Fold this protein.
Amino acid sequence: MDVIRKLLSHLGEYKKPALIAPVCTLVAVGMEVLIPYVMAMLIDQGISKGNMDKVWLYGGIMLACAVAAMAIDSASAVFGSRASTGLASNLRDVLFEKVQTFSFGNIDKFSTAGLVTRMTTDVTNVQNAFNMSLIIATRAPISLVASLVMSVIISPSLSAIFLAALSVLSAALIFIMLRAMPLFGKVFARYDNLNASVQENVTAIRVVKAFVREEHEDQKFTDAANDLHDLFVKAEGILAFNNPVMGVAIYGCIIALSWFGTHSILAGQITTGQLTSLLGYVFNVLISLMMLTMIFVMVSMSAASGTRIVEVLEEEPEIVSPQNALTKVADGSIDFEAVNFRYRTGDGDGEGEETLAGIDLRIASGETVGILGGTGSGKSTFVSLISRLYDVDSGCVRVGGQDVRSYDTEVLRDAVAVVLQQNTLFSGTILDNLRWGNPDATLEECKVACAAACADEFIDRMPDGYNTQIEQGGTNVSGGQRQRLCIARALLKSPKVLILDDSTSAVDTATDASIQRAFAEQIPDTTKLIISQRVSSFGSCDRILVLDSGRVAAFAPEAELIKTCDIYRDVYETQNKQGSEADFDELEGIGRDPLSQRFDPAFANELNNMPSTGKAGE
Ligand SMILES: Nc1ncnc2c1ncn2[C@@H]1O[C@H](COP(=O)(O)OP(=O)(O)O)[C@@H](O)[C@H]1O
Ligand SMILES: [Mg+2]
């Protein structure tokens, strides 16, 4: 009930059709209920007495009632679907708007697939149920009661047959429903799983193909679909008993009515016409009952969907801007004070290991910091705390000397640009995508940013240059190109803090180095945090943070780390000795000591003049 009220509160401008539809139905039902009654008069006063005038009169009234009922019924159908599609569209709107306010934590809770299902399938379920209820939920009970009343008026004794049939039928239908209902509940749970698996597979279709897993995935899907099919057949199979039960009830009533009715006619208690109209009411009553049970099924089936929608609507965004939020970020300094953080997965919160523990460090504005650590060591988590994608559990993260929780989140995220590990481009032109960073950026500014991110050379080679269309999800650019576009997009924000989360992993080392160099030249005052798996990316870094299982293993300049930090020395030595990097880097042999070559202009020139540096990223 509560769920229904909450869903209906989003009816908005569609309240009117939602009211008109049942009113129309009401009028139509009134007309329909009149028809058998008028027929009785037609038979008794017209046909039986051979009075042609009465036949014409009552015949005309019946025809008028039928036509009017039909017309009003269609109107109610139109208004009903207008109201229900309107409700659905409003619900999708508010859901979408709500999801935009979600923090990463909120999204983790529902999962992306879950949110998609809620916005599509669940809304459609609610829409259908609402449409049905608007029309049938008013029609069935009214028609049932009205027909019953009319029959009692005609003949109280014969109506007893109705009531007997009605109670038997209700019992049977309720029994069937109770059996079918749990099955439908299960059907919907499986349907959800199927949806999630479709979403996952279609999103990851490239991976599936690359691993030649099509058949396996296909089989998995077929199994899931068959499972669902079997359950559905079982549930519908139980529901199918409705029809024979209804048949027995209707024909039983007709036989009983005919039997007792003829006796009553002979006894002079009722007329032939009245018996005929009673038979008409039998159909009305029993069919209304059938419809009622159908609505019952529909509504309870969509109740689950409704609950799931309301869950999203009522979810509190974990991260909101405070009142009197700060609207200016002073500088790009970053302080972590005794920060602890752990992800809340599912509903159980706060069990298991801390993802980050006891992080305490200070980064000066304009400093360039490299971050190194094994996968799962908490690097991405560390940087996501800076732009407040998640909130710390204890301790405090400061940007520009102020707690991140005191800023307006929009201001903070404008000042802290993050190129996420799983970065995405959106469908639109390259220019459109770049202007995500700054809607007012001129073409010139975009070109400068792209030059810094080393994206200009491949954009210039594209047929339409900056107006090249990017496919949905950025599928028509390579991984390395996408990374560089995302970096350019972040640069256009002219942020105070720039964070690259493994954002040059698909870019060859030489390009990587020139991107870093451009950063040093063009945005010297911006604090730069660079997460990378390869030590060569830390070329221009003042200090390097080494994370190990969510703890700070070391935080010092590279030269010192090589001496004091075992983890760093190991990584450094393996990568430099064997040239064992993922990309086939021809420059590997040029300088063994990265420290001495980094700021050496000769080396920089050499880099620039290498014509054949493997464009591993393209
Ligand atoms: N959204 C998330 N929900 C739950 N756990 C997560 C989430 N993201 C990361 N983790 C877990 O937190 C730990 C650190 O992850 P992450 O910061 O991404 O590591 P890194 O970037 O160093 O590879 C990992 O154990 C990972 O499984
Ligand atoms: Mg990561």
DSSP finds 21 helices and twelve strands in the chain.
